[in-house]
TrEMBL record:
This is DNA mismatch repair protein MutL. Residues 209-327 form the DNA mismatch repair protein S5 domain. It comes from the Bacteria. The lineage of its organism: Bacteria, Bacillati, Bacillota, Bacilli, Bacillales. It comes from Paenibacillus flagellatus. Belongs to the DNA mismatch repair MutL/HexB family. This protein is involved in the repair of mismatches in DNA. It is required for dam-dependent methyl-directed DNA mismatch repair. May act as a 'molecular matchmaker', a protein that promotes the formation of a stable complex between two or more DNA-binding proteins in an ATP-dependent manner without itself being part of a final effector complex.
Length: 339
């Protein structure tokens, strides 16, 4: 008898959860991305105690068909790709089919969902990967996911959680970026009942920038807009006298996905060249568009890091677009601006 065994689904999900669900903000990210993939125009996020007690994401998207409710929580179950070919044309935020089973493996989940406007839906309760109940319920069209007691059955992971403030910081940072990535979606973020962010969903990126950073910052933003054969860029960069002490306020959105990419953020900073004071960084909210074939998003489970096949070209394009906006400004240094 050989010694090698295929792990059962439950154990496999717990292992995957360790990778996909690192902290409360990972749950928020996965749930909100599902809401966006479902075509929602309104996404309400409520958090309690930094997300360790409760994370609730309610959307008005497509909802989940009755027959799909339980399947959605299976490993590698996705409605977003059907074959390997599809990996090269990804337009959705998710595609791995790992989020829901991973979350359900390490928390207590309640999913209320309806694909129709008839007021009827389904409620599925899953705890630690086991289905507790599945029944008919009153529900409006869309999906309402509640995740309670994250990591309740993985004490080792729970021990690594930082303070409520730190966990909340990760969550709000992510929601702010998503709101800037999707100005056409109305987002609300609440923590312990108080509203941290509310966007209108009217497509106005500058309104979102104002909601996130305040009106003083929004007033100091310069519009950027450019297009080449391969790329397009649109959004806002701050005047060089409106800066921050770190790169945190640089948001780069690539084909609707917020990304981290060192080359692109350096291109932005290089465009400012000597205009920025030393160790100061601009506020940036930029949307970059390109053929999905030119970018590989399948690098990391959290899909934050991406690889570009023509990185040098992209870098030059971004630097030129921002550089020409900044050079077009008459720059009058002002002392004592808020940061
Ligand atoms: P993925 O997003 O990679 O497909 P998930 O585990 O996150 O995998 O979700 C599994 C499936 O459940 C999705 O493909 C989708 O069909 C369905 N689903 C999850 N969340 C929602 C939602 N908020 N609205 C509609 N469908 C959803
Ligand atoms: Mg998903």
């Amino acid at each position: 008898m050989g010694k090698i065994k295929v792990l059962d689904e439950h154990v496999a999900n717990q292992i995957a959860a360790g990778e996909v669900i690192e902290r409360p903000s990972s749950v928020v990210k996965e749930l909100v991305e599902n809401s966006l993939d479902a075509g929602s125009t309104k996404v309400d996020v409520s958090i309690e105690e930094g997300g360790l007690q409760l994370i609730r994401v309610a959307d008005n998207g497509s909802g989940i068909e009755t027959d799909d409710c339980e399947v959605a929580f299976f490993r590698h179950a996705t409605s977003k790709i059907a074959s390997g070919k599809d990996l090269f044309h990804i337009r959705t935020l998710g595609f791995r089919g790992e989020a829901l089973p991973s979350i359900a493996a390490v928390a207590k989940v309640e999913c209320v969902t309806s694909p129709s406007a008839d007021g009827l839906g389904r409620k599925l309760v899953i705890e630690g990967g086991s289905v507790k109940s599945f029944q008919e319920t009153a529900a409006s069209r869309g999906t309402d996911m509640t995740v309670r007691e994250l990591f309740y059955n993985t004490p080792a992971r729970l021990k690594y959680m930082k303070t409520i403030q730190t966990e909340l910081g990760h969550i709000s940072d992510y929601i702010y970026r998503l709101a800037m990535a999707h100005p056409q979606v109305a987002f609300t973020l609440k923590h312990n009942g108080s509203v941290l962010l509310q966007t209108l969903g009217n497509g106005d990126l500058l309104q979102v920038v104002a909601a996130v950073y305040g009106t003083a910052v929004a007033k100091a933003m310069l519009p950027v807009q450019a297009e080449s054969a391969d790329y397009s860029i649109a959004g806002f960069v701050s005047r060089p006298d409106m800066t921050r002490s770190n790169r945190q306020a640089i948001t780069i959105v690539m084909n609707g996905r917020t990304i981290r990419n060192y080359a692109v953020s350096n291109a932005i900073l290089n465009a400012y060249h000597t205009l920025l004071p030393i160790n100061r960084y601009p506020v940036v909210a930029l949307h970059i568009g390109m053929d999905p074939a030119l970018v590989d998003v399948n690098v990391h489970p959290a899909k934050l890091e991406v690889r570009f096949s023509k990185e040098q070209e992209l870098v030059r394009f971004v630097e030129d677009a921002i550089g020409s906006v900044l050079r077009g400004q008459v720059l009058i240094p002002q002392a004592g601006r808020p940061t």
